[in-house]
Amino acid sequence: MNVEILGIVENMSHFTCPHCQHEIDIFSKGGAERTAKRFGVPFLGSVELVPEIRQGGDTGLPAALGGEASKNGAEFFSIAKKLATRALEIAAVEKNVLEIT
Predict the structure, then answer these.
(1) Percentages of the chain per state (helix, strand, coil), in multiples of 5
(2) Cβ atoms < 10 Å from Cβ of 75
(3) I want to staple 12 with a disulfide (CB 3.0 to 4.6 A). Which of 2, 30, 49, 97 is the partner?
């Protein structure tokens, strides 16, 4: 399709038990990062499997509304910043290619 891939995000990377705080690897954490390395694209981050994130999305109150310092919003902001940086990098490369040709 000739579409530039900006990066890969791992959704539902793990679950932290609310009772004992033990991290549970439900869906084989780390696969997205390995795939990014394999294909030479940036790994932008991972989002934990958190019931409040799903509930917020279902009710129209996404986790990012909590702000950059919020427990559930912080990773979304981090990923968004990396995504914006990557988009600017690609735009700069494309601009230079157009100027050369």
Answers:
(1) 50, 15, 40
(2) 20
(3) 49
